[in-house]
Amino acid sequence: VEIASDLGLNTDEFRSCVKENKFRDEVDGDIIAAKRAGISGTPGFVVGILKDDGTVEGEVISGAQPFSVFQGVIEQYLNE
């Protein structure tokens, strides 16, 4: 709550949201999707090509990585 306050958020709404687990289903769905993609921590990214069926053919980048890591993977897919 202190961090929310420092960020200028409405702390009453923040407390209510957390207490009621307002976005629990959405967060759980994101966790399941991340695990399916091979992401096991934060931050985690999938860089690749979005297929017609909604899946991504790509590469997982785990952890805080320098720009050069992202640049290399992005350039690989742009050159395909």
Short description:
The protein is an alpha+beta fold.
Number of strands: 2
Q: What profile does the largest beta sheet have? A: 2 strands, antiparallel
Mean pLDDT: 92
DSSP strand content: 15-25%
Please give a structural write-up.
This protein has 80 residues and is of the alpha+beta class. It contains four helices and two strands; from the N terminus they run αααββα. Strands 1-2 form a two-stranded antiparallel ribbon. β1 (44-50) and β2 (56-62) form a beta hairpin. The longest helix has 14 residues, at 24-37. It is elongated and about 50 Å long. 0% of the residues are buried.
Task: Please render the helix and strand layout as text.
Layout: H1 2-6, H2 11-20, H3 24-37, E1 44-50, E2 56-62, H4 67-78
Antiparallel strand pairs: 1-2
Tag the structure with descriptive keywords.
elongated, 51% helix, 4 helices
